[in-house]
Specification:
The complex is a heterodimer of chains A (243) and B (160).
Chain A: H1 2-24, H2 33-50, H3 58-80, H4 84-104, H5 108-133, H6 148-167, H7 202-212, H8 214-234
Helix pairs in contact in A: 1-2, 1-6, 2-3, 3-4, 4-5
Chain B: H1 3-25, H2 29-53, H3 58-88, H4 110-113
Helix pairs in contact in B: 1-2, 2-3
Classes of the chains: A mainly alpha (243), B mainly alpha (160).
């Protein structure tokens, strides 16, 4: 009973979200889209209301609630949409909301790079593939989904465990900015690495990338090259038949 | 934990959970790949939040590497999906639940599922002839002479 008083609202929020997703998932019989949306929205609202309010400006808090709610709801709509084109567009909205959360954490370059790479490249590639591969419109395999209840229970038990861990008191306090100089870069000590803190500037991020992570950046470029060669090699040619 | 970072971590966890749920339940190959990208978003958000919690830039640097790998993964996966679609004209994941070649017989056919028959002529190979003195295997046996002496004291060497 004590546990229920402490965690009852949290559990209710998670159950509401899981029920909403179960109701929204496409399946053979008719789904009640309005009920599912209401349940998912109510669960998200309760779960966000239970989180402690971030200290600071009220505009910061409002932007956080806006971006967080739109990220979670667009994610729910993405994984439950019947049409893959709509799923890709909802995923673009999730990307935009995540980039808003990046901006709120003084990661401006990361937000811009994520928008350019995801919304500009990955979503467009997905849409091209959908248009190439699924020209017939709605298909049978988009109207059914596998093991909805079992997967929802497993996923939301995991989410509840994550939230319970977040609410526990075993967390270190946030490091004040003046202690930032003490932290040494943990990886790839080379001649170009130097100590710096997260001051929100693009210059320090560039110094970290091309100083501490110089070898990793070179490796990532090699991985990109190999992946592009592999994609060209794997993709079907026109001589093998038209798509 | 102060409330400044908890919300971001919770949203990152929610995005990961939603991506895992979509990956487990949906049957469209493209939707499964999109769900994997959603999971990567959740992990990226968590990385950035922890980097800000510890006031380092490692979270943002890791997120840039996640972006790189996500781009590679999307390109390779979509090329694979196109190649698979060209074979069966369907994006259903259920079609690919069996990985065997289509011209081979199914491994679930009755003659393969039954137990293999016992071999009829089992050839008995000759065993090695015993060489040297057989060791004593139990305590009560009379001890062999060691170094030409028999003194009745149980010898430990070479007994077991």
């Amino acid at each position: 009973m004590n546990w229920l008083q402490q965690n009852g609202w949290q559990a209710a929020a998670l159950v509401l979200m899981a029920l909403g997703i179960c109701a929204l998932m496409p399946r053979a019989r008719t789904r009640s889209r309005t009920l599912g949306l209401l349940l998912a929205f109510a669960g998200t609202a309760i779960a966000l209301w239970l989180l402690p309010t971030p200290a600071g400006l009220i505009a910061h808090s409002v932007l956080f609630w806006l971006f967080a709610a739109s990220a979670i709801l667009c994610g729910v709509l993405m994984i439950t949409s019947r049409n893959p084109v709509y799923a890709a567009l909802w995923f673009a909205l999730v990307t935009l909301a995540t980039c808003g959360l990046f901006l709120l954490q003084q990661a401006a370059f990361l937000a811009a790079a994520t928008i350019i790479v995801y919304a500009g490249a990955i979503i467009v590639t997905f849409l091209f593939v959908i248009m190439l591969a699924q020209q017939a419109g709605a298909t049978a395999y988009d109207q059914h989904s596998h093991h909805v209840v079992l997967a929802s229970v497993g996923a939301f038990v995991l989410f509840g465990a994550l939230l319970a861990t977040l609410r526990s008191d075993a967390w270190p306090a946030a490091r004040p900015p003046e202690e930032a100089a003490v932290i040494e870069p943990a990886l790839a000590q080379n001649g170009l690495s130097r100590t710096h803190g997260a001051d929100g500037k693009m210059q320090s991020l560039g110094r970290s990338l091309f100083g501490d992570y110089l070898y990793a950046v070179e490796l990532a470029g090699t991985v990109l090259l190999v992946a592009s060669i592999g994609a060209i090699a794997i993709a079907p040619r026109r001589s093998q038949g038209t798509l | 934990m102060s409330g400044e970072y908890e919300g971001y971590l919770a949203v990152g966890g929610a995005l990961f959970i939603l991506g895992a749920l979509g990956f487990l339940t949906r049957r469209n190959l493209i939707l499964m790949m999109l769900s994997a990208e959603l999971m990567l978003h959740g992990v990226s958000l968590t990385f950035v939040t922890f980097g800000r919690l510890h006031n380092t830039l490692e979270g943002q640097a890791f997120t840039i590497f996640i972006l790189t790998i996500a781009a590679c993964e999307a390109g390779l996966a979509l090329a694979l999906i196109l190649a698979l679609y060209q074979k069966v004209r369907s994006l259903d994941i259920q079609v690919w639940s069996e990985l065997r070649e289509p011209d081979l017989p199914s491994p679930k056919s009755t003659n393969e599922r039954a137990d293999p028959p016992a071999p009829e002529d089992v050839r008995h190979f000759p065993r090695l002839t015993p060489a040297g003195r057989a060791p004593e295997m139990h305590e009560g046996a009379p001890q062999p002479p060691v170094n030409g002496r028999v003194d009745g004291v149980p010898q430990e060497i070479g007994v077991r």
